[in-house]
Amino acid sequence: MKTLFLLGWFVALVLLPSFAQAEVVVEEVEADGGTVTVFHMTVTPAPEPVPALKHRLWSRPQDLQPGNSVVYYLRAFPEGGMEQSWKRLHEQYGDAVDEWYRNDHPISKLPLDKVRIAAGYFEERIKQMIRPGTLCRDTDWGDDALNVRGLETITYLLPHIQVMRAIGRALCLRTRFAIAEHRYEDAIDGLRMNYRLGHDVGQDLFLVSALVGIAIEGLANNNVIDLIAASDSPNLYWALAEVPEPLVDGRRAMQLDITIAPRIVPALLDAETAQHSPAQWAQLVTDGLREFSYVDSYYGSSFVPLIESSMTGLAATGIGLFAYPDAKRRLIAAGKTLAEVEKMPVGQVLFVDAAREYRRISDEHEKWWYVPYREAGDYYQRAVATLETGNTINLGARMAQVLLPAMRSYRNAQMRSQWQRNAFLTLEALRMHAAVAGKFPETLDEITVVPVPDNPITEEPYVYRLDGEMAVLELPFSDGMPGVSWRFEMKLAEKE
């Protein structure tokens, strides 16, 4: 009887469909416009899970516990914490360690015995600190971003934010190891923690924190590609759809960061109403130019020779007198009378003009955050044109030239994540369709099992074609994402 049972079990196992060669291989291909990252993927069909949200990449409110996630995250670092663990791994295995958590290094080529040891370095901290942190209801980094003023605005240190990357890499390594061993629930658990970590880091009001959060999200996204390509991996369509979009919403950080100039040079805040003597205004001009000289050198812009000459009051006075005629003319054109302007000290005229110019230019940059990315692209070029100041010397315009371009970089980073996430949803829709139809569709319109998301940049379907039996999904340079183009080439694994 026992023999018959084992024979029956063996026959059933043989009859179950199994797939081979599921893998992703990353290749960089030169093309018009730059380098295209091509993901060659051999995947298995994957139906919708039952229940549909069997796998979750985002914790539900009822799964969260009282507490501040930051307290747990920061506990992972003292006494030879995360960063020291990475240092020891580099000493033990060299730079190869950095390949193990990146998906341009195929999972099939991972030295699993070494990766097992490496992942084990972090396991207790993930168990005791990171996982509980990702299950906390609140996130408070304790930074007083709203009240940072002066040069500290650009020099404010955020070491506790930067080190979060070490956690993200550890989770990424752990997830890839789980995928290699076909422990897909553990892999999904690692993805969930990394997405939550990226979200929590991005809750801080500093723009750099939002960028670090997006970088951590990018690590998780790379793991998603690995998991989609893994043999017999579950379909993540609904799990991905549940993750907030955008995961890191930097609008609040942007709104604070765009006020950076008046926070560095506080005299810009109340220049219209402040009452100072001519000598005091002259000193404010000197102080403002001195502060900007530091900002200018910090960002490495092209105005250092101009500002270096501002380090003495005499030179500041000379620059002020040179800039005064243009400033005076703009104030009169804006509605002030000649008598009102001539009654104002020279320093006040310069500061009022600078404050207005910075506000005008910063508003031109900010307003395009509030329209769809596709529509904002062309108009943003007009905003860039507002940075051109000709031969005038205007502190506000100069500060805008140095400080505001970062706004566009962040918007691009946020949209890039959404661009890629919707592509993952499309890949999973393709795998779900293949599970029903036995093959990839000729067009995305043929997919009816789930909605196929549009490309969020073009607001149209992604570029897709069927090349023989290979499904090709493109994120081309023509979408307008600076320096980034992806292409997914998917084949179905052969049944064994």
Q: Features of this protein?
A:
single chain, 2 domains, five-stranded mixed beta sheet, 55% helix, disordered N terminus
Count of domains:
2
Poorly predicted residue ranges:
1-20, 302-312
- Radius of gyration, rounded? 28 Å
Cα shape: elongated
Query: In DSSP terms, counting alpha (H) and pi (I) runs of 4 or more, how many helices?
Result: 22
Binned, the helix content reads 40-55%
What structural class do you assign from the helix and strand content? Answer: alpha/beta
Strand coverage percent: 5-15%
Largest sheet: spatial strand order: 1-2-7-6-5
Report the strand count.
7
- Which sheet architecture does the biggest sheet show? 5 strands, mixed
The end-to-end distance, rounded to whole angstroms, is 29 Å
Order of helices and strands: HEEEHHHHHEHHHHHHHHHHHHHHHHEEE
Mean pLDDT: 88
Protein architecture, described:
- The protein is an alpha/beta fold and about 500 residues long.
- Residues about 1-20 and about 300-310 have low confidence and may be disordered.
- It has 2 domains: about 20-250 and about 410-490, no CATH class; about 260-405, no CATH class.
- Helix 5 (about 110-120) crosses helix 9 (about 165-180), helix 6 (about 125-135) crosses helix 10 and helix 10 (about 185-200) packs antiparallel against helix 11 (about 205-230).
- It is elongated, with a radius of gyration of 28 Å.
- The chain is built from 22 helices and 7 strands.
